[in-house]
Design goal:
Number of domains: 1
Order of helices and strands: EHEEEHEHEHEHHEEEHH
CATH superfamily: Ribokinase
Distance between the termini: 24 Å
CATH topology: UDP-N-acetylmuramoyl-L-alanine:D-glutamate ligase
Largest sheet: 5 strands, parallel
CATH class: Alpha Beta
Number of helices: 8
Strand content: 15-25%
Structural class: alpha/beta
Helix content: 25-40%
Strand order of the largest sheet: 2-1-5-6-7
Length: 262
């Protein structure tokens, strides 16, 4: 029997198509040797091309899920994904605020790849105010980082500047994911509050739809933090994992979902 298995918690919405959300997070945790637990925030009817409907879970129910996970398991790290409303965010912040030394990854899920809004406007402000300063890492994609700094980001230097600006403002490390820059290689920019910045580069894999990559990437980072790794090592190994999942993707019907088992 394996003892001292790392435990991670995902607080996020579901994806019935299996490529994103809690489903992707739990697959990722399992593949990376971490015991996965979850607190569901929303039930989402979707597939890789379309979000049809979102039904939010009662905030008190979200809080109770989190509380019971912590009662039963030694959670080493937590990631948040789709939180949807300010009411849910307040309950999440309240629960996480009770835990000392918690390593938190905040994936600020705002808009789906299909274009559907996944976070209410007032919830954006609540998330930033209540969760960013608690985070071991915040992982916006390029569009989310642009929303947070209030300007378009069109090249690597602008993305790096945004990462540094956000890290300094919220006093937490920020990883701005540069996949949407469409460079020859896929680059991400990790900035610390002291101004230090590190670039993570991987080959760009073509011909694959990227539904769920943000969820999967942040879950992989969370898994590394649950193992006790330093932040830059957790990001490096997660970058390698998400690159494998993209490049060795599956082909099912007309879609090309990530291969979480690689």
């Amino acid at each position: 029997m394996k003892r001292n298995t790392p435990v991670a918690l995902t607080i996020a919405g579901s994806d019935n198509s299996g490529g994103a959300g809690v489903q992707a997070d739990l697959k990722t945790f399992t593949r990376l040797g971490v015991y996965g637990t979850s607190a569901l925030t929303c039930v989402v009817a979707e597939h890789p091309g379309r979000v049809s409907r979102i039904a939010a879970i009662d905030p008190e129910m979200v809080a109770e899920q989190i509380q019971l996970v912590f009662e039963a398991f030694p959670v080493g790290a937590v990631k948040t994904g789709m939180l949807f409303s300010s009411g849910i965010i307040r309950q999440v912040a309240k629960q996480l605020g009770k835990r000392r030394g918690l390593r938190l990854v905040v994936d600020p899920v705002m808009v789906a790849t299909s274009g559907a809004a996944l976070l209410k406007p007032d919830a954006e402000r609540a998330m930033a105010k209540l969760l960013f300063h608690r985070a071991a890492l915040v992982t916006p994609n390029l569009d989310e980082a642009a929303r947070l700094v209030g300007r378009n980001l069109k090249n690597p230097e602008q993305a790096k500047e945004a990462a540094r600006e956000l890290a300094k403002k919220w006093r937490a490390p920020f990883l701005v994911k540069g996949g949407h820059l469409m460079l020859a290689k896929a680059e991400d920019y990790l900035a610390w509050p002291n101004g230090k910045l590190k670039t993570f580069t991987a080959k760009r894999c073509k011909g694959v739809e990227t539904h769920g990559t943000g969820c999967t990437y942040s879950a992989a980072i969370c898994a590394g933090l649950a193992k006790g790794w330093a932040l830059d090592k957790a990001v490096l190994e997660a970058k390698r994992y998400i690159t494998r999942a993209i490049c060795q993707h599956l082909r099912i019907g007309r879609y090309t979902p990530l291969n979480h088992l690689k």
